[in-house]
Write a structure and sequence with these properties.
Layout: H1 9-17, H2 23-33, H3 37-48, H4 53-57, E1 59-62, E2 65-68, H5 80-93, E3 103-108, H6 114-123, E4 126-132, H7 135-145, E5 151-154, E6 169-174, H8 189-192, H9 208-216, E7 221-231, H10 236-245, E8 249-255, E9 260-266, E10 274-276
Helix pairs in contact: 1-2, 5-6, 9-10
C-alpha cells in the first residue's frame, strides 16, 4: 500500500458500517485501486454487498506478497500464513530427496498457489508441485507459480499427480476445506456467497477432505517426508487422530495471534506438542 494516498474518513466509516473488520486497510486499498470518485463509489458498493476485497482489486496479500487472484478462486486466509511459516521451517531443516539436495514440496488444494509460492520464495531450494481440482484455480496457480518454476496439476487430490511422483515428496502442505457442512451458512457473506462451496465444505465434521489426504499420503511421501494440514482449533485432535490412524505420528502446532492451527504428520516419531503464543 502507498501511505501517501489520502483516504477520506467517510470511506473508512462507510466500510466499518458495512461490517468490514479491517476498514482502514481496505479503504486505503480501494482508494488506491480507483481512478475517480465514481469508480471508488462503485468499488465501495461492491465491497458493502459482501464481495471479497480480493476479487474487487484482483489480488490478495499473503506473507508479504501480492498474489494475483480472480473470482471463483479461494481467497488465501491470513491464518494460513502460519502453515506457510511452518513449511518454510521444515524446508530449511530437510535434507531433501532430490539431487542436489533440493526439497520437493506439494501444495495440495492449492487454490491460487499462495502457500506454495510463499514457501518457494522464502525457503528457496524447492521443487514446487501444486494440485487442485478447480480449472479456475489451476489456471490462476499456473500463472502465479511460473515465477518459481512450479508445476500445477488438475484433478482430485493425489489423483492429479503423475504416478512417477510416488514416495518422492518431502513436504506436503494442505489448506483443504475444513468447515463442517452445517456451519457454512454461518460464514460471512464474502465466503458463503462468493467463494465456491467446494473450497469450504469439509463434510459433516469438517474432516472429510483431510481424511482422504491423510489416508493416501503415505505412498506419496519420501521416507523422511512430512505432511502439514491446516485445521480448526476445535478439530485439531480429531485431525491428528486421523493421521495416527493412517500410521503416521502427529503433533499439533498453534499460533493464537492468527487463530491458526496446523497438524504436522510424518513417519517419524512426533516431537513435543508445540503451541506458539
Amino acid at each position: 500500500m502507498n501511505p501517501g494516498v489520502r483516504v477520506d474518513p467517510h470511506t473508512v466509516a462507510f466500510l466499518r458500517a458495512a461490517g468490514c473488520v479491517y476498514a482502514e486497510e481496505e479503504a486505503q486499498i480501494l482508494t488506491e485501486a480507483s481512478h475517480s470518485t465514481d469508480e471508488l463509489r462503485s468499488l465501495l458498493a461492491r465491497r458493502a454487498s459482501g464481495e471479497p476485497l480480493e476479487y474487487i482489486v484482483g489480488w490478495a496479500q499473503f506473507c508479504g506478497l501480492r498474489i494475483p487472484l480472480c473470482a471463483g478462486v479461494f481467497v488465501p486466509r491470513r491464518r494460513s500464513e502460519f502453515l506457510a511459516e511452518c513449511a518454510v521451517q521444515a524446508v530449511m531443516a530437510a535434507p531433501g530427496s532430490l539431487d542436489p539436495g533440493r526439497v520437493r514440496v506439494l501444495d495440495m488444494c492449492c487454490g491460487s498457489g499462495a502457500i506454495g509460492l510463499a514457501v518457494a520464495i522464502q525457503a528457496g531450494n524447492v521443487e514446487l508441485l501444486a494440485a487442485d481440482d478447480s480449472p479456475a484455480a489451476v489456471e490462476c496457480a499456473r500463472k502465479n507459480l511460473a515465477r518459481v518454476g512450479g508445476r500445477v496439476f488438475q484433478g482430485d487430490l493425489f489423483g492429479a499427480l503423475p504416478r512417477a511422483r510416488l514416495r518422492s515428496i518431502d513436504l506436503i502442505v494442505a489448506s483443504a476445506p475444513y468447515v463442517p457442512t452445517a456451519q457454512i451458512e454461518r460464514l460471512p457473506a464474502e465466503a458463503r456467497l462468493y467463494e465456491p462451496r467446494s473450497t469450504l465444505d469439509g463434510g459433516p465434521d469438517g474432516t472429510s477432505v483431510q481424511r482422504r489426504i491423510l489416508d493416501a499420503v503415505a505412498e506419496w511421501l519420501a521416507s523422511a517426508g512430512v505432511v502439514m494440514i491446516e485445521t480448526g482449533g476445535s478439530m485439531a485432535e480429531t485431525t491428528a487422530n486421523i493421521a495416527r490412524s493412517a500410521g503416521l505420528s502427529a503433533e499439533i502446532r498453534q499460533y493464537s495471534d492468527l487463530d491458526a492451527t496446523v497438524v504436522v504428520a510424518s513417519h517419524r516419531p512426533a516431537t513435543q506438542r508445540h503451541a506458539r503464543q
